[in-house]
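Support request from a user on the community tier.

User writes: "When I paste my structure tokens into the form, the page sometimes reloads and wipes my input. The last time it worked, I copied everything first. Here is what I submitted, just in case something in the input itself triggers the reload:"
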């Protein structure tokens, strides 16, 4: 699988790059970013996949989160996939900011017309993972996943559905119970159809209730988040963790909203959480 370099930038002794490849899973070109820390010059390093939220691209986290300084210190590679296929030609794919382009929800759609190209789960867990491991100095045995909002949902569900792939997990303001919020209901109906059993297979709260397990989790949630009450429902996920005996650190922060100023404030803690978990793996 050939990787096309779109741009590369020296950054804290490493390289922040942006790339594209012809995806077999998606059937279209897909973009992603990679921060390669300076330690990778000496050999393979642990790698984190960060899944961004609604409307974001492969560049958003790299530009806004301020993660590279501490990632370089810790020797962590960070991969930032785009949030959906682009230029699909699907009618209505650009009609809404919370569904279609920029809103892939990190699952493989089963409903027409989305099923042909919206195969984000297979792309991230199989094709992009393999591409990163073969094209960059990343360790296959030390891989973490984290995300924000829709991407927090994706990080949890992909780790629950593919526990052999990820040794550390965290999230910022995740959509924690998507079957019970407007964003999730809209996306699941469009991508998966009306069968709520199919929804449960992509809902972190329901997967935990069904016996799913994760590494010890870190969640940060702002209490001034406009989406907290209507869309995110961390209390439902927290209750499922308590019932399942799932280790969880859920930190609630007064005054913080849903955006990247919030992520920027706590990104160092997440990187250190992953570095420690992967070092102990």
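"...and here is what came back when it finally went through:"
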């Amino acid at each position: 699988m050939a990787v096309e370099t779109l741009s590369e930038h020296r950054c804290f002794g490493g390289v922040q790059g942006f790339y594209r490849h012809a995806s077999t899973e998606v059937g279209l070109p897909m973009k992603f970013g990679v921060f390669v820390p300076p330690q990778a010059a000496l050999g393979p390093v642990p790698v984190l996949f960060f899944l961004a939220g609604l409307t974001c691209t492969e560049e958003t986290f790299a530009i806004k989160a301020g993660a590279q300084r501490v990632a370089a210190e810790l020797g962590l590679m960070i991969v930032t996939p785009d949030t959906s296929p682009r230029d699909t030609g699907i009618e209505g794919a650009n009609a809404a900011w919370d569904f279609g382009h920029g809103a892939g929800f990190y699952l493989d759609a089963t409903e027409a017309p989305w099923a042909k190209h919206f195969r984000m789960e297979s792309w991230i867990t199989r094709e992009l993972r393999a591409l990163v491991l073969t094209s960059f100095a990343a360790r296959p045995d030390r891989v973490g996943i984290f995300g924000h909002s829709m991407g927090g949902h994706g990080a949890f569900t992909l780790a629950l559905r593919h526990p052999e792939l990820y040794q550390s997990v965290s999230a910022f303001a995740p959509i924690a119970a998507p079957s019970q919020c407007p964003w999730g209901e809209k996306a699941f109906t469009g991508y998966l159809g009306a069968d709520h059993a199919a929804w449960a297979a992509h809902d972190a709260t329901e997967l935990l209730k069904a016996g799913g397990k994760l590494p010890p989790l870190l969640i940060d949630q702002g209490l001034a988040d406009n989406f907290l009450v209507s869309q995110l429902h961390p209390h439902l996920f927290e209750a499922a963790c308590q019932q399942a005996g799932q280790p969880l650190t859920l930190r609630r922060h007064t005054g913080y909203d849903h955006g990247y100023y919030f992520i920027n404030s706590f990104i160092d803690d997440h990187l250190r959480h992953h570095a420690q978990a992967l070092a102990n793996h």
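Agent notes: The reload is a front-end session timeout and is unrelated to the input. The first strand starts at residue 4 and ends at 11. The CA atoms of residues 177 and 205 lie 5 Å apart. Escalated to web team.
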